[in-house]
Design brief:
Keywords: Membrane, Transmembrane, Transmembrane helix. This protein has 106 residues and is mainly alpha-helical. The protein has one domain. 92% of the residues lie in helices and 0% in strands. The protein is built from three helices and no strands. Helix 1 packs antiparallel against helix 2 and helix 1 packs parallel to helix 3. It is elongated, with a radius of gyration of 17 Å.
């Protein structure tokens, strides 16, 4: 249970930092903030998928080879990281939209 709580805290922190950096990139047009936000999203996806892969593969496929576990965890990490990045990017665009509409009316 402690492992799950630690992983959940790491994923939460990385995801919120990713959203914060995406917002900064949208507000100030900083490419490095967008890149760091993307890296935070991928790191959050990696942390979550590694934990899930290691705990699920042990029960579902106990005699899996190292190559199979590595491949499955890599694919899940990329998919979850990209999903979290797309979600944080969409969230930052939705939060910035009212500011941009007020700016364009001036």
């Amino acid at each position: 249970m402690l492992n799950f709580l630690l992983i959940a805290a790491v994923v939460y922190l990385l995801y919120t930092w990713g959203v914060r950096l995406q917002m900064r990139a949208q507000l100030f047009g900083q490419a490095w903030s967008a890149l760091l936000g993307y890296a935070c999203s991928l790191a959050a996806g990696t942390a979550a998928s590694l934990f899930v892969t290691m705990s699920v593969m042990e029960r579902l496929w106990p005699d899996a080879s190292v190559l199979a576990v590595s491949f499955i965890s890599t694919v899940l990490s990329a998919m979850l990281g990209e999903y979290l990045h797309a979600r944080s990017f969409r969230l930052s665009l939705l939060m910035i939209a009212p500011l941009r509409s007020k700016e364009s009316k001036r």
